[in-house]
Design a protein that fits this description.
Number of helices: 3
Oligomer: single chain
Distance between the termini: 7 Å
Strand content: 35-45%
CATH class: Alpha Beta
Number of strands: 7
Order of helices and strands: EHHEEEEEEH
Helix content: 10-25%
Largest sheet: 5 strands, antiparallel
Structural class: alpha+beta
Length: 133
Amino acid sequence: MVEARLRVIYGDTDQMGVVYHANYFRYFEFSRMEFFRVRGGSYRELERDGFMLPVVEATCQYKAPARYDDLLLIRPRVSELRRASIVFTYEVAREDAPSTLLCTGRTLHACVGRDGRPKRLPDAFVRLIEQSP
């Protein structure tokens, strides 16, 4: 299982010192990059080869607040792999309480070419996703 670690910076919080809700989507993106990096790949390589994975749907269920200077664990996982799309799910917790979820989320990504038209996920990318870290 991939666990991306990220420390909450002051600029990620609101006036109450709580992580602003939209920043969790940035944390999800960060964990996706780590997911691919751990497996030896990157989005950059995918894009270089003419494939893009735009987010077409995103959800987040907030359970408890994260605060300034918390060290977060973000656990990304591929929950669905289709011909031309991929679904990631996420769990976010504090490192000092990894079993207490702060939020869970889900992003759906379409695979498209530079022209914006749907494309089949490349075989090399699918193999990268299916391998264990």
